[in-house]
Write a structure and sequence with these properties.
Elements lengths: L11 E5 L5 H10 L5 E5 L11 H19 L3 E4 L2 H14 L5 E2 L5 H7 L4 E6 L1 H5 L1 H8 L6 E6 L3 H7 L7 H19 L11 E5 L7 H8 L4 E3 L2 H14 L13 E5 L3 H12 L6 E3 L13
Parallel strand pairs: 1-2, 1-3, 2-9, 3-4, 5-6, 5-7, 7-8, 9-10
Helix pairs in contact: 1-10, 2-3, 7-8, 8-9
The chain binds D-glutamic acid.
C-alpha cells in the first residue's frame, strides 16, 4: 500500500459540465456516506458535448486546479463522460499525485448482459467522436453490435429544466421530444432477435431523463448507467491509497457550487438529491478561459 500524500479527512472533488454529475454524486453519497464532497457544476459553460476537446480540456483543468488549491481535495471524480473522454489524460498529467476516477459509457456490462447482442448507446457528440470511446468499442466482443447515437441538445434541455422561467411542462415536452427523436433514429427496441435489448446512458445528464427514455423503449429493455460503478471504483481507489474514512459519524457536509445560475443548481439539488438550498453556492473561476470559442 502506498503512503498517502493527502489527508483522509479532506473532501472528494466531483465535477461535471453542469447538473448531470449529480447522478454520480447521488451514488457516491450512498457508497461513501462518511466522506465529504465538493461538487462543481460548470453550468455557466454547459453543455460541453458540442464544444470540442480544446474547450473541455481548458475548463476541466481550471476546475481541477481550483478544487485542489481552494478545497484541498484528496481525490477527483470526473462525473462527466465528455470531460473524461477529452481531458482525463491532460488532468492526470497536470495533477499526477491526485487520485482520479473518470466516467465511461458502460459498454462492457451491457455487452455481457445483452441477450440479443445488440446494445444502444446514447452519449454526447464529444464522447462519440472521441478516440477513447473508439478504443472502448474496439475492446468489446465482436459478436455484440452497438448502435451509437449522439444526442445534440439533450444535456442542454436537461440543464434548462431546472432554470427559471421556463415552465415545467414546456421543458418536459422538449426533453421528451429530443428523447423520442434519438430513440426513433436508433431502430427497434425489444427482446426479439436483432432488437436493442440494452440501452447505455453514456452521459450523466441522461439519467435525469431515464423515465422518459424507459417509456419510449418499453419496460423490457434494460437501461444501464454508471453512477454506482463509479462510486464503487472511487471506494476501491481510496482504500488502496489509505485515503478512505469512516471516522465521520455525523452526516458528512457537502457543498455544491455552480458557475451558472444558483437557482438552477438549488432546484436540481432539491429535486434529485433532496438537498437544501443552503448547501449550494455560486462561484466564478478566474483564469478559466471562459471566452474560448467553440469548435
Ligand atoms: N454530463 C456530461 C456527460 O456525461 C456532458 C453533458 C454536456 O455538457 O454536453 O457527458
Amino acid at each position: 500500500m502506498s503512503t498517502p500524500t493527502f489527508s483522509s479527512s479532506a473532501p472528494i472533488g466531483v465535477f461535471d459540465s453542469g447538473i448531470g454529475g449529480l447522478s454520480v454524486l447521488r451514488a457516491l453519497r450512498r457508497e461513501l456516506p462518511h466522506e465529504r464532497f465538493i461538487y462543481l457544476a460548470d453550468s455557466g459553460h454547459a453543455p460541453y458535448g458540442e464544444k470540442g476537446d480544446a474547450f473541455v480540456i481548458v475548463r476541466s483543468l481550471a476546475i481541477a486546479r481550483h478544487l485542489r488549491e481552494h478545497h484541498a481535495i484528496k481525490a477527483l471524480v470526473i462525473a462527466c463522460n465528455t470531460a473524461t473522454a477529452a481531458a482525463i489524460e491532460p488532468l492526470r498529467a497536470a495533477l499526477p499525485e491526485l487520485p482520479m476516477v473518470g466516467v465511461e459509457p458502460a459498454l462492457k456490462p451491457a455487452a455481457l448482459t445483452s441477450q440479443t447482442h445488440h446494445v444502444g448507446v446514447l452519449a454526447t457528440r464529444g464522447t462519440t467522436l472521441s478516440s477513447r470511446f473508439t478504443q472502448l468499442m474496439a475492446r468489446q466482443p465482436a459478436h455484440t453490435r452497438f448502435s451509437v447515437q449522439a444526442c445534440d441538445g439533450l444535456a442542454h434541455a436537461i440543464e434548462q429544466s431546472t432554470e427559471e422561467p421556463l415552465p415545467a411542462a414546456q421543458s418536459t415536452a422538449k426533453i421528451e421530444a429530443l428523447c423520442a427523436r434519438y430513440i426513433n433514429a436508433m431502430g427497434l427496441f425489444g427482446t426479439e432477435n436483432g432488437a436493442i435489448d440494452t440501452l447505455v446512458l453514456g452521459c450523466t445528464h441522461y439519467v435525469f431523463a431515464q423515465a422518459q427514455l424507459q417509456a419510449l423503449i418499453g419496460p423490457r429493455v434494460r437501461i444501464i448507467e454508471t453512477g454506482a460503478a463509479v462510486a464503487r471504483q472511487t471506494r476501491r481507489i481510496l482504500e488502496v491509497q489509505a485515503l478512505h474514512t469512516d471516522a465521520n459519524t455525523l452526516a458528512a457536509p457537502l457543498t455544491l457550487y455552480t458557475t451558472g445560475a444558483l437557482g438552477a443548481l438549488e432546484a436540481a439539488a432539491e429535486r434529485w438529491l433532496d438537498l437544501p438550498a443552503r448547501d449550494c453556492a455560486a462561484i466564478a473561476l478566474p483564469g478559466a478561459a471562459a471566452s474560448l470559442q467553440c469548435k
